[in-house]
Fold these 3 entries.
Entry 1:
Amino acid sequence: MNILEKIAEKTKQRIIAEQQILSLEKLKEMLKKSRTPFDFRKAFINQEINIISEIKFASPSEGEIAKPEPLKVAEAYLANGAKALSVLTEPNYFKGNINYIAQIREKFPQANILMKDFVIDEYQLLKARVYGADAVLLIVALLGNQLKNFLDKAKELGLTALVEVHNQEEMKIALEANADFIGVNNRNLKDMTISLKTSESLIKFKKPETIFISESGLKNKTDLANLQSLGYQGFLIGTSFMKTDDPGKALASLLS
């Protein structure tokens, strides 16, 4: 199994365990009282360098990255120009927690928040909405031809779906499902290597009405300027910020 398959297997087990504590029926009741999500795409309809700053404390490729301090990191990012926050909620490989989103939403009610998890079940979408997310990550490599169903469900819940692709085949699935907010991940899931050539080659599929976000391996303003000139309207950056002593300062330095 590659890393994505391993994470998916753990996620299945996690959902079963979580439903013993908070049932799908209870979530649907909670949904009636939850806030209306922001239109996440609006943050990227401009000519600026739009950064989705990621809050992540570990990863399979890096191991432990930083001490879990979600509110401190969120505050630093928002104070230094982040257009949105990507919050890891996968606990086994990324030390994430869905409660991080609830905490950040309560303290920073105007923040644009993406729940970054490995979505394989409607239950996760409902949880994202109830806990305060505006957007969710849908990974084509995980969902395949089920993508359209998950896109429709996310839309029904008022959530923006950032559809993640890694190659041309996945891009075609995303476009056939009418995805209009696409994240191109520069990481190869088979060997975990990163190449910005992935973003450079897949931009040819961009439609005028579709927003493209580049993810992974973005380290300096030259990278961003080059990809922006090709048509990318946003950039998801996490590890390079989180590995520093001050992620907010690292963001400010990149934008300066």
Entry 2:
Amino acid sequence: MRHINGAYTAYFNREYQRAGHLLQGRYKAIVVDKDEYAVELSRYIHLNPVRAGIVSDPSGYRWSSYKYYTERGKNPEWLFTDFILGYFGQELHNAQKKYRQFVHELIGYEYESPLKGVVASTLLGGIDFIKMIKNRYLKNRTVERDVPALRELTKGPSMGEVEVKVKEVFGDESTMAKKVMLYLCHRYSGMRLKEIGDYFGIGESAVAQSSYRFQLMLDKDTNLKRKIEQIRKNLIL
């Protein structure tokens, strides 16, 4: 999607002799609790051109799939309306009519976007749904710093917890213990560089540099790597 956005923007700017961004932000890819949010999201999307003041009725927007949800006719091969319409009845004509009424109920009214309930820019659903996703797909998964959404969903151990486990393995080796603690906090705690830096009394860039140097050391020392793996298991990382 990023390539398509970039390539099309480059083509459009070249074709129409313009410069700068063409499309606003990245596309959204969210795991949705279908039973609780699917129809609300569908309505929200179909009312986008109405909220933007482009049309007064969603059926008037040329680029919308709305007409396929509310009128008889053949859908494009890539569009499946049965899932959403199934919430409004089994008979197609009645389901289309009820869906149209459902969408029109909010025309002219201000209402909160269902997307405001998105957790970590990734999940939309109730507490039980979020818990199910985390337990089924994220439990015991290593949290990497370069995936912010995953880091937010899988909260790592606190720095205090890391300190306790590190000292169990390294004891009074204060210099090495500090390096290990900083490395583990940087890689797996999910905390920001400033938080980690404040805890160890160093700057943000020093946190990243120290962690990088320790990784180089780890790659060459199998005994040290074994100890780090032991700590990771104790922290259930």
Entry 3:
Amino acid sequence: MSDLGIRLPVMQRQIEGNPNMPPDSPGTKVIVPDYIPPGTELDAFTINAAANLVTIRHDMNFILADNKVSPFPIP
């Protein structure tokens, strides 16, 4: 399962109950792509109170669209 491009692992009880999923198999690890901003950068924003404006530092919609990989490319 993936969310924001981050590959999430299978739940621990499923890993423990499934003999076909050894502890170090790919489904047990979190995979964060390099294009995802690090640490608390996802929550970074600036506020311009005078203009009543909030600006986010990283537009994840743009980042995900720019790094989209599809097994069915559209020409």
